[in-house]
Amino acid sequence: MKDKLLLMFSLLILVSCQPIMMKLYGIKDPDIENEKTITKKALKYDLDTSNIVTVNSKDFLYVLNGQSIPDGAIYDRNGKYIEYRQTDTSCNAGLFQFIPTLNLTDKYNQPDSTDLKTELNKFRDLKGNTLNQLEPADFYLLIYWTVWTGKLNKDHVKIWEDLARDNKNCKIKVIKVNLDIQEYWDEQERDKIIKAMSKKK
User: Which residues of 100-118 are buried (b: 16+ CB within 10 A; e: fewer)?
Assistant: First the structure.
């Protein structure tokens, strides 16, 4: 049993790194998604559909370039960013251990790189509307994911979401940030983004 757990943990670490993830999962070019297709995919992987947001077209490439997929970011109740990675080159596997240990007494590494309010201004709901104010929480966990990453939504996003819910030491609000190309974007802006993405392949 211990050997099986060790093997599973090792695989989770391996597929947390973006280059390995792409090789193992054969990620295809992303399609244009909308509220219906995103919700359908979330339900397929048993994800909560009440906390999904998207990124507006203006900030999309900036947000996408800063993330591996899937990935996560943590903020405290005051909106200050918490760095869970040990080093700049660490993969997101650390989230599997970090989320369950979050509590109100420990001190965390909080570089002044960004804040929650700045990030939320980049997000929209699934219809493209600006977001309402968030409910109060001790911590906010932003999980970046896409429809096109398929099985990783179950292997990572679902597990991270469950770990946050099961943490009894504090209240963690999960916000799942969908990084797919959105149908509600202005068509010309969307075409420019798709063209910019195709140049990077």
Answer: eebeeeeeeeeeeeeebee
Q: How confident is the model at residue 24, as a pLDDT?
A: 39
Cβ within 8 Å of residue 100, ≥6 positions away: 163, 166, 167
Helix (H), strand (E) at residue 79: none
pLDDT (0 to 100) of residue 197: 77
- Residue given tokens 């960013």 in the structure block: 81
**CB of 15 closer than 8 Å to CB of 28:** no
Share of the chain above pLDDT 90, in %: 65
Predicted local distance difference test score (pLDDT) of residue 200: 55
End-to-end CA distance of the chain: give it in Å, rounded. 42
- Asked whether the beta carbons of 128 and 184 are under 8 A apart, the reply is yes
Contact of 150 with 47, CB cutoff 8 Å: no
| Low-confidence spans in the chain with pLDDT less than 70 | 1-30, 87-90, 199-201
- The confidence score (pLDDT) of residue 90 equals 64
Q: Name the residue among 144, 148, 177, 166 with its Cα closest to residue 69.
A: 144
- DSSP H helices, the chain, are 2-14, 18-25, 35-44, 57-65, 95-101, 116-120, 152, 159-166, 187-199
